Amino acid sequence: MAKYKITVLTPLHIGTGNSYNQNFNMLCKGGFVYLYDEFKLVDFLLSKGDYIPEDFSKLKEKIRNYKDEIIKSNLHLRKIKNNFSSLENKDVLENVSSSNKPIVTGSSIKGAIRTAILNSLHLKDERSKHLFNSLKNKNIYRDRFSKGRKTEDTFDKDFKSLFTYLKVSDSIETNLNTQIFKSINIKKNKKHQSSREKRVFKIQNNVECISAKQMFYIDIKDESIKKYGKNIFSNLGKICNKFYLNAFNKENELYFNLFSLGKDFEINEESNDVFLLNIGRFSGAEIKSLDNFRYIKNSKAEDKKESSTRTFALKDDVEDNVYFEKELLPFGWVLCELVKD
Fold it and tell me: Residue ranges of the CRISPR type III-associated protein domain (predicted)?
């Protein structure tokens, strides 16, 4: 079993599908957002001898009236840093957690690894020869992995079976801090940006993210020797760098100051012990797609011009509502370093 140190480089969001509604199960005050179990808030109101309105808007108003007292009571599930003056009365999308502590799931990491391996097989890269030789069907063609431009992957059983023997743990024993970011979907081509103001703020989301510069650990176990007589994932780091490093370098050129990586930050593509991954929601359909082979639909695209959009993270208020590239970060970049094999 190999242990890896994972460093979060840019805001990371692993979604649960749950959201928190302002002045219902979410309260904002003093640079923080507080998340609550709504049943505990009901118990709080009952403890005050107050009634519970059936009308939802009246219930929210009652909770808002008790806001300061509720916050002082320490009933919250999580207290999250928030630099925005307003969340525009939009819900906050929750990051996945365990025992109310934010985590990074092994499945999200494994999914990013799987995409890199698929790319390597598609390119017939020498790094993935053991994986290729382990496939029963040696023909690598698009319909085995993605039909048309649907969002859903349609991986066949032959390809899926390889990953039965790759075990990736959730983040281990770490208290990860989260922060509220706004997901901003914008056109990358600046010729189209002058008309973007209204749409940018119309479709934004408030997102709980694991913030940058934090570290956690995961275990990765290659059990493939049981089935194939060899460790077919032995070049995992090299395969991931082959796929992700070029995309990372392009974004690092644009967002160097905000990455705060330092001038000496460099990764060797042939390193098997240090590699990059891009994981989580909003990490970009473009990065997960393979030219003429696998397509992940951009859900925000309404026309062909919109296909050149990308979702970025904004961490605080901006003065210029149209041009604010310097305040944006790409989602989901992490650095993986082997610490024990």
Answer: 5-261
